[in-house]
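INFO  loader      accepted 1 record
INFO  loader      residues=804
INFO  predictor   begin
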Amino acid sequence: MAENSESLGTVPEHERILQEIESTDTACVGPTLRSVYDDQPNAHKKFMEKLDACIRNHDKEIEKMCNFHHQGFVDAITELLKVRTDAEKLKVQVTDTNRRFQDAGKEVIVHTEDIIRCRIQQRNITTVVEKLQLCLPVLEMYSKLKEQMSAKRYYSALKTMEQLENVYFPWVSQYRFCQLMIENLPKLREDIKEISMSDLKDFLESIRKHSDKIGETAMKQAQHQKTFSVSLQKQNKMKFGKNMYINRDRIPEERNETVLKHSLEEEDENEEEILTVQDLVDFSPVYRCLHIYSVLGDEETFENYYRKQRKKQARLVLQPQSNMHETVDGYRRYFTQIVGFFVVEDHILHVTQGLVTRAYTDELWNMALSKIIAVLRAHSSYCTDPDLVLELKNLTVIFADTLQGYGFPVNRLFDLLFEIRDQYNETLLKKWAGVFRDIFEEDNYSPIPVVNEEEYKIVISKFPFQDPDLEKQSFPKKFPMSQSVPHIYIQVKEFIYASLKFSESLHRSSTEIDDMLRKSTNLLLTRTLSSCLLNLIRKPHIGLTELVQIIINTTHLEQACKYLEDFITNITNISQETVHTTRLYGLSTFKDARHAAEGEIYTKLNQKIDEFVQLADYDWTMSEPDGRASGYLMDLINFLRSIFQVFTHLPGKVAQTACMSACQHLSTSLMQMLLDSELKQISMGAVQQFNLDVIQCELFASSEPVPGFQGDTLQLAFIDLRQLLDLFMVWDWSTYLADYGQPASKYLRVNPNTALTLLEKMKDTSKKNNIFAQFRKNDRDKQKLIETVVKQLRSLVNGMSQHM
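INFO  predictor   done
INFO  writer      dumping tokens
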């Protein structure tokens, strides 16, 4: 029962499998058959049985079908056999037709192949044309690039390269020639860089050579503009009725207008002739090189190279020649090169972007300015010619004004000019020292004579002299001063003008200029003129008459100082009442010179007295005096009288001092003559003769050779001699010794040492002519008295030395 139930269950399954096999593609039968074996054991046998049964069913169906269609098949075969004969005939016909068709189509095939070949060629040509149309623009651009390179149009060439790389090469990048072009472009760029850099180097060398011409042109232009402005200012001043002074002479207004008109016309002509920096230098290499490096993306390299090279050139330009200080052309060449350098840099700054910056030019200018100041300070110190220093100042002002017009700060240059101004004044002082020396050498040191009104006015026009008494005198007459006074006055004014020349164009106020003029004039008076006067006074050949005239001259020069102050005031238009106005020190200068001259008068006078005294020829052993004064002394007194008459033109105090000094010196000289250590013995006759000479000196003193002495003041110069001689002449030793040291002593001025020295010279020791020889014969008691006096005098001398 169980087996039957299992068999019943497998039958539907086997039918399903068979249906699946019949309806499924043979490729998928494998899994279906595998399921037969995966089922129950012996299931495949049952399946085989079922399969055999199914096959038998199908065979039966086929057999039924064949039996049904068999007659039709037989009929079809019969029909087919009948058609077979016709088919063979048709085959023969078709074969013949085919042969004939093949024979006929051989030419067509040949022509067709030709057509195909032509079509292929046509297609290839079309393709080539299309490719060539792509390549031709590239080749044309590359050819254009070559032409631009040949024509040195490098910036355009670089632009063409950019177009080739960005537009044209992508179209034909697959072709070999394009790769060659692409590989060649970097080399062309490097060539362009090298060529443009070479052009830049040539440009830098060119502007280095032309810097002086560029600077000269720029400085001329600045000078013309300044002159034009000054001319306009003068013209405007004339319109307002202001008086114009050119140099020292006042020029009428009509002449001024003519001069200014001519000046303006000349300025217009000069401006037309002036070239600009663009006219002198071709800047295209710089622009071209800058654009090229900008296109190449290497602008920073170009800027660094340009700035580095220009700094090197700046150092070369700023290096002066060793002999630059010898001529103004050396300074001019130095300035023009520097101006040319910075004019080029300023032009580059304004026409390019980034190549030169304001910070860079300022740094370069500050470096250059420090070097320029150091160079000018060093080289100007070698200048000894004031004209050269003045030309250097004018050049420096034009140099500063030129660069200031281009925006460079130049205040330090004007500060330097103030330093150079001190040096300029020093050179002026040295020059005027020579001028003053020449004036003093040429002066005859005698009053200026004038014989008519014309000569009188000429002197008055040169020197501000006012004397109503002299004006009233009839011709011929004489000015009290000598010829050097108006010459000195004129030269002082010339010095002021020369000093003013340097102060012009320094952008300083009138007050500062006035102060500078007064200070420089003070230096001229207190140092140069004073030194020249002192040297003149001390010269050996200057005599007493000349010294007297020098004192008179200094008096008039001192009085003229106020006119010099007015002269400076008229130039600067600064009132003397201004608080900070410097006063001229001429008063003290001429006072010092006058005092020196007075002292030299005293010295010269004493020297002259010494010369007369040296002529003294006393016979110190004479027994009796000659009865008259010595000849040398009378000559001396006559000389002193004539000299003191000349002193009447001097101030009274000077003449009195000179007279007193002369008498004191004469008294001292006579005293020294008596006490001379080489004089061993003196006779009483010699003393009496000497007394006669002293009496003449006292008579001269009492005759009042110079007015103004009170009483016997001048005679007191000989009081020492008088008391000494009276003591020996009267032989009043008892009174001298008794009253010694008393204020009311008759011989108060006689020094014991002096008396002892003279007494010993008169004492007879061993010589037969001794004055005391007769005493030993006639009166030995008196001899003892003398010995006693000598001992007492020595005692007084020793007492004095102990107190000292």
